[in-house]
Structure formats: structure tokens, C-alpha cells
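Entry 12.
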Amino acid sequence: MATDKTKHLKCVLDSHKIQKEQALLDKHITKKDEIKAALKEEYGSKMYEPFNSGSYAKHTAINTKFDFDLVAPYKRDAFDTLKEMYNAVHDFLHKKYSDEATVKKQKVSIGLEFFADEDGHVVKVDVVPGRELNQDQYKDDNNINLYVHSQLGTIPEGSERLKTNPKAQISNVKDHAEKESVRHDIKLLKIWKVQNGKKPKSFFLELITIKAFDKKDITGDLWDKLKAVLEFIRDEVKTISLPDPGNSNNDVADTLTDVEKSDLSDDMKYMLERIEENSDNIKLYFKVNPDHPCEDKMEENKYNVKREGVSAPPATRFG
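Predicted 3D structure (C-alpha cells):
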């Protein structure tokens, strides 16, 4: 019997709701708040208020990968160079947390992966240090410069002029994600990425999904809409431009190399062909979270309701 692709995708989304891992979510929030307090205590008046900028803040989170990105904005005179800022924040976090976490330098962030607790839970928080462009300007425009520690797509290692505005990025994605179709397709692409070990950053997937809905007349059921986005990525990713909502001079498409863009196009092509050949293959690319399987009775009651997708989370939840 052929797989009902839309019904399957609804189950996938339901199983990946972030509320279904509330205990782990609470631990991430607690640790994020602890790191935020530690940074404020260490740097005091040299920095502005740190804030979360990941999927949790954008309402596009899934429960198999929590994006807790903590932006730490510093004043212009706090450090002479962006490299000095990046290294200083890394050294502080390493000194404070090395006994309970792996602390490592990443492309523009410092990653903290805390050792598994008694429940087997692992908390991960990425701290993104940034410095305002001019002294006391951040309060007016929220713009910061990031330091590129290692090659980021086509952006070279050691670049000290990656200007962006994380708060504008959050607002852009969050506003578009208010539309259920966009939010669901973003989440499904993130699920595909995590389950299949793919490279595109979540922000890249968010922007390219938003652009697909802007450029195409996307209608139909959940599978029809996801298929249209996958086709858009297949056809457009090699040449697409994705202006950063935080700085239109940045092209988020540059976070992938030409080879990575070509690979992504091929991934979409092959996936679409395999699902077209056999609807059961959709289960290979978009898997239900085995920790939260859908119950037949629940599915029957829920999916007989004639509306697109799974129910949207309450305003106080992110998922």
C-alpha cells in the first residue's frame, strides 16, 4: 500500500515538536541563562545584553537539535580587534567550563557541549561574540561585526568584517514563520538535514525556504508544498542569492561553497526522483522521531480535521 505522503509528514512534524522534549529544553534554557550571567559578570559595562538568536527564538525549532545560539554583543572599545574579542571570549569560557563541557572554536561561534547528565541529556550552547561598529552605536542599530575563525563557505578565515544584525535576522524568519506552510517546510528541511547529516546551516535553509514561497505560487497539501520547495532548491541553489536580513551586503548563499551548492542540488534531485518512484521512500528522508511515535488513534482524530498541517504551537512555545 502506497504511503500517504502528507499524512506521514504531519506525523514527522508532530513527533519533532520541541515541547515533547520539555525536560531537555528546560535544561538548555537554564544553561543558556547561566552562561549569559557569567558573561555579564565577567565583562560588565564592556558588553550589551546577550540574547538567544537560534531556532528557539525564531519559532522554527525541532526537538532533535536545539539551536541555542547566544549572541554576546560587545562595545567598540572593549577589544582592539575582532580576533582579540573572539579569542578572549573563548579563553574565558574554556577556563570556566572545561571541567564540565567541551569548549571549541567554531566558524564564528564558540561551542559548548556539556557532558551527559544523569538522564543522559547533553546540552549544547553556541556563543557568538560580536562587536558594535562604532562606540555606543549598537543601542540605535543593533549592528555588530563577527570574527570568522575558520572558512565559512566562500568567506575566508580571519575575516574581520562580517557585519550583521542578528535581531533583524530573528524578526525576518519569525515573521515569515507565522505562516504555517513556511514554518512547516523549514522544520522539515531541518529534520532532513539532521537525520541525513547534511551541511547547510539552519539559517540558509530558513532563507531559501522563504525565498521559494516568495518566488513561486506554492499551493496544495503539505507534501505538495514541500515538493515545490525541494524543486526550487534543486533548480536555483547553484546561482541563488540570499541577502542577509541583517546586512544586505552579505549573501548567506556564500556560506556554502560551489561544490556544496552542487551537492545540495543533487541531493534534492535524487530525493525527489526516489520519492516519485516509490512513495514509501519518503520515510527514508523524513523519519518520525522514534522517541515520540504517532499513535494511530491520535492520528485518525487529528488528521480528519480539514486544515493544513499539524496544529500550531501556543504563542508561549517554540517548536
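Annotation: The CA atoms of residues 152 and 255 lie 5 Å apart. Strands lie at 51-52, 69-74, 101-105, 110-114, 124-132, 144-146, 162-164, 243-244, 247-251.
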